């Protein structure tokens, strides 16, 4: 496993980050425990979760227990990391709906403090390494959000702050606020980014490069389409896992070409797709979910692959510049 520095923090994170969004659904809790163990064995020290992962209805699927009967992903992860907490860098996040109340969401001081305390309990830890604002909150001033993050850092409950799904202008605004008020500034930006969806390259990637933030992509295999074409045989694939429509024909055509090129080079499509993403400017680590240990080990192999310049160019040419 190779490692990158998270922003300018000096903290080293594995180039493959274990994602836990569907913990408790697929994989089931017992398999999730084995996946976490396998991740540590192969050198993955970066794990991503959130306060709304695992036991919210958006993750429902046939054959899985209903949301009300599932444990939160954070709780499953915390149990799996018992006695191994210091071996990992845990990233979690808040702002999504965490309950039925009108104040059970967002980035207000009230909600953030409550969710940090709940995450600490579920994870069985007294600190969170990286805490993201999961989504922008138009109803809360960014000054308030960054202020409470700064307080939580000074209290030792979180170590660093990141922004997830925020556009470049909001990332820049957050950095201005932090500098002006002498708050701890965000060190990472999490965003959907892969060979098919390169919208982040339009503004976010250049902004993060300029200001020294790490980019941590989620959906690096575009819901499995860039992993293996056999994903098309599944009853649940891509954003269907989150009640979405699935893959359009133009995306399937790109994936078929990725599959062809990869096999010409003696690689699996997931290896080529992840290696391409990890070669992009500013990308520190790619978040990869897995339903079993085999999938995890296979995807993790991409961290050790260096594509040649002509291979990178061939892959880049498959999709239009944003």
Going across the biggest sheet, name each strand in turn.
9-8-7-6-5-4-3-10
Average pLDDT, all residues: 94
List the domain count as a whole number.
1
Q: Quick one: overall form?
A: globular
Give the name of the CATH architecture: Alpha-Beta Barrel
CATH superfamily: NADP-dependent oxidoreductase domain
Radius of gyration: 19 Å
Q: Sheet with the most strands?
A: 8 strands, parallel
Series of secondary-structure elements, N-terminal to C-terminal = EEEHEHEHEHEHEHEHHEHH
Distance between the termini: 31 Å
Main attributes?
322 residues; alpha/beta; TIM Barrel; eight-stranded parallel sheet; 10 helices
Q: Could you characterize what this model shows?
A:
This protein is of the alpha/beta class and 322 residues long. It has a single domain (3-316), classed as TIM Barrel, CATH 3.20.20.100. The protein is 35% helix and 14% strand. The chain is built from ten helices and ten strands. Strands 9-8-7-6-5-4-3-10 form an eight-stranded parallel beta sheet. Strands 1-2 form a two-stranded antiparallel ribbon. Helix 4 (142-154) links the parallel strand 6 and strand 7 (158-164). Helix 1 packs across helix 2 and helix 5 runs parallel beside helix 6 (204-211). The chain starts with a strand and ends in a 6-residue tail after the last helix.
């Amino acid at each position: 496993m190779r490692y990158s520095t998270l922003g300018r923090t000096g903290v080293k994170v594995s180039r493959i980050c274990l994602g836990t969004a569907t913990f408790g659904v697929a994989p089931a809790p017992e398999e999730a425990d084995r996946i976490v163990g396998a991740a540590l064995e192969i050198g993955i020290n970066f794990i991503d979760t959130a306060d709304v992962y695992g036991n919210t209805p958006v993750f429902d699927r046939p054959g899985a227990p209903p949301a009300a009967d599932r444990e939160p992903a954070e709780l499953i992860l915390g149990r799996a990391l018992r006695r191994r907490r210091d071996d990992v860098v845990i990233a979690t996040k808040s702002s999504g709906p965490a309950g039925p109340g009108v104040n059970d969401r967002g980035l207000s001081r009230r909600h953030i403090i409550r969710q940090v305390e709940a995450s600490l309990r579920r994870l069985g830890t007294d600190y969170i390494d990286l805490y993201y604002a999961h989504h922008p909150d138009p109803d809360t001033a960014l000054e308030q959000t960054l202020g409470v993050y700064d307080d939580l850092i000074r209290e030792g409950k979180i170590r660093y702050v990141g922004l997830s799904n925020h556009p470049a202008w909001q990332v820049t605004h957050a950095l201005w606020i932090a500098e002006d008020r002498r708050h701890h500034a965000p060190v990472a930006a999490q965003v959907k980014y892969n060979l098919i969806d390169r919208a982040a390259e339009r503004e976010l990637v250049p902004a993060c490069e300029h200001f020294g933030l790490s980019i941590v992509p989620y959906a690096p295999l575009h819901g499995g389409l860039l992993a293996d074409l056999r994903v098309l045989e599944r009853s649940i694939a891509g954003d269907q896992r989150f009640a979405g429509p699935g893959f359009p024909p133009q995306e399937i055509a790109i994936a078929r070409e990725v599959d062809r090129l990869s096999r010409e080079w003696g690689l699996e499509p997931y290896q080529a797709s992840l290696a391409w993403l990890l070669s992009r400017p500013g990308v520190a680590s790619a978040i990869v979910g897995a339903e079993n240990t085999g999938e995890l080990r296979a995807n993790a192999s991409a961290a050790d692959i260096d594509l040649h310049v002509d291979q990178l160019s061939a892959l880049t040419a498959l999709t239009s510049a944003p």
